[in-house]
Amino acid sequence: MTYFTDDHKLKPRQSRAGKKREYYAYFTLIFLATLPLACLTWTLSATRRMELPERGPIKAAWRQAQFITPRIFSA
């Protein structure tokens, strides 16, 4: 027979604000990491086509960060 006591406590869950801060910290790091590559890609695309691409480098890096960050938290 198994005996369960009231002293057995589970780990407290991380608060919602803490998770939000962690998400934004990861988002910022990923955004800053993808920004140089997005700028390079944007510049190369602009020089090849001789016209400005539809999305700017900041918007492209932002979308990449929006795609990558939730995948980290779902794992």
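Next protein, fold it too.
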Amino acid sequence: MSERIPIPVVAALLEDADGYFLIGRRPPTKPLPMRWEFPGGKVEPGETPLEALARELMEELSIRVIPGKAWPVYLHHYEKVTVEMHAFTCRLAPGSPAPYAHEHMGLVWVRPDQMAEYDLCPADLPLIPWLKEEARTRARP
């Protein structure tokens, strides 16, 4: 079996002022139907991950963001494809409209400790412990 070439993808860990993160529900017509995910998508040839993040968020949600922390890059192996995940914490840019679901079935803001209640896409799951740990670190006096 030959080694798969990973597909670079981006994920926006879009956080509001209260520590909630935006997740969207995938439509029934796409792979991983009806699962929840952090918004994002594929990095196109010639794009940097941050350029892809800005493009994907404009296409999917009609928003502009201010990127923050870049999380460690990791691989996730699905049955037929491997993705190389580039995740960034970000906030809405001043003057940006609220997120609007152009491609998702719905959007919801959740705290990291609530994410287990949602059927998240497998490639997004490694991000949850990191978000929980960061939330705990912020809560410490």
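About the second fold: The longest helix spans residues 49-61.
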